[in-house]
Fold these 2 entries.
Entry 1:
Amino acid sequence: MKTVTIDHQVLPAIGIGTWHMGDDSTVESQEIKAIRTGLNAGAKVIDTAEMYGSGAAETLVGKAIQGYNRDHLYLISKVLPNNIAKTIEAHLDASLQRLGADYVDLYLYHWRGGAPLIDTITELERMRIKGKTKAWGVSNFDIDDMSELWNLPIGSKVAANEDLYNLGSRGIEYSLLGWQNRHGVPMIAYSPVGNADSLGANMTRNANVLKVAARHEATPYQIILAWAIHQPQVLAIPKTAQPDHMTDNVAAMNIDLNKEDLALLNAAFPAPTQKQPLDIL
Ligand SMILES: NC(=O)c1ccc[n+]([C@@H]2O[C@H](COP(=O)([O-])OP(=O)(O)OC[C@H]3O[C@@H](n4cnc5c(N)ncnc54)[C@H](OP(=O)(O)O)[C@@H]3O)[C@@H](O)[C@H]2O)c1
């Protein structure tokens, strides 16, 4: 099983995304079942945000984790950019209330907004010291943002960066992923299956992906996920509201892609040869 270490916690390398979950009450029980299927299969990380359904996803997660040992969960939530960093605590308190939790494990700055970065991270660090989050990090940061962050006082306390990353969207490999590895900052890969392959790469129908899938008696989605986490310190957070998809997704962390598999996948979806703008969803 692949693992990733964030803030000294060793975590299974596939977690659970929750964007668009909690939006429709008629499928709530199925969504809760999907999340629990993931946790029961060995996932630990749940990624959510105050933005998702304006709190509805956090509320759903709060329901899904009832009865689970908090120590066995790793909850990530995110604060929307705000021009006034001082409001972060009120936003975090509201997230905690929806989650029914005393703390989150990782609190991310969802994307860079107008507030001076130093003010934002000072407030995030204050939340860490208060115990409302165990660690803080960022999301949708490219290499320039990470370098700027790193050079700020306490900037190197950043526990992770969460960016769009999948086989069909490899731009971060040009420089950012290496930078993060050298600086010990894990990457959380969002949209790891390309948002159900809706982003245009056609990964799930690609002949080489299908060939590798056949070799491993796996689905194309599983191969795409196994690829997303094959490099060290990359955690993937696929979203699914389908319990059977969840079972497949979590099982993908046990698929070891060999050199031949990787060569086939590389041939179909080559690594970037120049800097590309950061993909954002
Ligand atoms: N930090 C950020 O700015 C940011 C931005 C976007 C996303 N995120 C996080 O990353 C998570 C994942 O990204 P995402 O939701 O954009 O896209 P994703 O996980 O790449 O794709 C989700 C889609 O793939 C389908 N799917 C998942 N597993 C499948 C499987 N095994 N077989 C068939 N279909 C499958 C899901 O449909 P079904 O539900 O029908 O299975 C859903 O439509 C989000 O939920 C969110 O937590 C963060």
Entry 2:
Amino acid sequence: MPSLFDPIQLGAIHAPNRILMSPLTRGRSTDAHVPTPIMIDYYRQRATAGLIISEGTGISQEGLGWPKAPGLWTDEQVEAWKPITQAVHDAGGRIVTQLWHMGRLSRPDVIGMQPLSASAILAPYNRGPGPNPYAEPRAATLDDLARVLDDFTLAARNALAAGFDGVQLHAANGYLIDQFLRNGTNKRDDQYGGSPENRMRLLGEVVDRLIAELGAGRTSVRLSPNGDSQGADDSDPEAIFVPAAAMLQEKGIAFLEMREQNPTSSFGRTDVPKLSPAIRKVFTSPLILNQDYDLESARADMESGLADGIAFGRPYIANPDLVERLRSGAPLNQPDVKTFYTAGTEGYIDYPALNGPASEQPALQAAE
Ligand SMILES: Cc1cc2nc3c(=O)[nH]c(=O)nc-3n(C[C@H](O)[C@H](O)[C@H](O)COP(=O)(O)O)c2cc1C
């Protein structure tokens, strides 16, 4: 069995190791969702990852209800991404962007309109003090969905123009595509609701649009199949996510990445068993698993053949040279939760690398 440090072909992308950086929203863009120069350093510092998956990146104003998260629908946003992808490439790395429509989790004070979802069901809020910042969404009409598909097409085209190596469709964590997949949030009675086949229709249509722009070898998808995600849940996760994974295999995407929760996780908990064993049977292209991995558990899931690679989230926030640390058994820096989403450089580009401050290592070489 290959190890974390062996190369892997992810569709058209050759990754020199199997350690991926999972998508991490950090809120360092402008109010107009334009990436800022500190993001150049941040991503360059992490260029030894087998593949960087960017933070969730909005496809439209309507779908990006997170303040200071980046977008990919204006020329200004595209231009601001270019030096970021260039810096990663110059440092020997690879980066795809995670395309994001937040659906009912788009805060109305950020998007300036009522958000869309599969059905008009308000998202619950239990992430902190204060009132629920979400609004009851409108059930998307067929015209709305046609526009959303066009927005994904434009964002995919812009991703290529901005220099990304590909895209990851964010179909996880209770956002728009996930709201359509799950029967707790999708109560529609048209061709997008009801049966699993209907609920995964939007996922399939978006993937088709991305493939048309970029090719299947540069198109990937993220799912979070087990348990509640920000209020989105399903009474029978296996019945929707196993066929969805089979459909993605059929479409020939480059890889599928899955965030799987567990009963003790510090990032969303669930007792719902992991679906990766069932999904592995129908998805035979590269399957990347995520959440709560360390070197030992990563090894175990790769040696059993369950995973072809592992995506690390919080460890990548705090360890720009995570590949080297895992390879050498060096201790890991611990991430500071307080600066996950704050503006500025603190807790962002100042985590030290093994050989000194990461910011003083302009030309980190690729690991292999
Ligand atoms: C600060 C922060 C931001 C995140 N942003 C995103 C995001 O933009 N898109 C996404 O799919 N998941 C996002 N996640 C989830 C992570 O990608 C990952 O699934 C989670 O941290 C669990 O992996 P870990 O145990 O390796 O940290 C975020 C998590 C954190 C902690």
